[in-house]
Amino acid sequence: MSITDVLSLPDDASRAFAERVAALAEALRSAHHARSGRPGAPVEVLEGPSHGTFELTVPTDAPAGTAAVIRTSGSTGMPKRTALPASALAASAQSTREYLGGDGHWLLALPLHYVAGLAVVSRALLGRVNGAAARLATLDLTRSFTAEHFVGATGVLRRAAGPGERLYTSLVPTQLTRLLHTDIGIEALREYSAVLVGGGRTPEPTRVAAAEAQLPVVYTYGSAETCGGCVYDGVALPGVTVAEVGGRLRLGGDMVASEYLSDTERTREHFVTAADGTRFYITDDLGTVANGVVSVTGRTDDVINTGGVKVSAQAVQQVVECVDGVGSVLIIGVADPVWGQKVAMGWEPAPGVGHEKYEAVEASALAAARDALGGPATPRLVRRYVSLPRLGNGKPDRITIANDLSD
Length: 407
What we know:
Number of strands: 25
Radius of gyration: 21 Å
Shape: globular
Helix content: 25-40%
């Protein structure tokens, strides 16, 4: 069966984009079948000339068994080409299937040159519902994400799947936040058996709103190096091992990538094999594992040293994002000749907050940081955005924001 037989599209979706989705799915299918001796070739997914589009190339330096190559760390300026074996994508899909209680039909709402989008395609591709292929619907990702587009695509998927069938989707926190601010978005989210949310920490107000609406949101943790999320709601998926070594988290299992292509040094730094044969990815995240619950407390580069005082950027962000009227926030350290670093904040107002309230909201945010964490943790450099600069996967664009705050 061709992927075009299971691909469902809204009437206004871009046909060119749909053809690329189908081509990617066929490439993944071919690489997956190659494990049993059938011909197959890996595919490298590259960001295209406009938001949401992507280009496909065949990497010549990928090891045998590779299904896809994803570029990572665009937020830090140090791109890595992560090689994902077909077996790793299959293991990731299987673990997700077991956790969610079965296969379902998937809506693609994220760019395909990021692993979260790629994972949706591979899960749908490998899924079977009542003996038939799972359906895959997609937003037209060449357009900006809106509640209206999400609602329309959800309707297409529901009609294709039929009543009572499980629907799944994967979102980033910003998308979930936008949907929660509309009645139609909330109703569409209720069509899903599970809404996976990852790619960054979800602000507490968004979590509270989702819980109050009794939505089936699952908060995920993982990376391109683990074929996407492998810890759901703080619990490792079946077949996944999480360990903490020196305060740093390690993620292990069959879903781990094989290597960073053409980067032996960073491959050695981030990938290790345990004595029992389990392959681990050494993350840049700090955290704990206690009684089977995984908690992420920050990143290795999270600490801001300002005047000899160490400040946790994540702790400041958690305080600020809970202030009424604050939408998205990024706290970072910016170099300073006197203090070493200054605590800096880029933020955007919450939907519905009028411009006449911006200064008051900003003042409240700074006061909240000072009252909760002390003077050194209070942002000294602040920039307000209509919309916080973001990468295609929804994460804040740290490089752009840092440059803005340094000007």
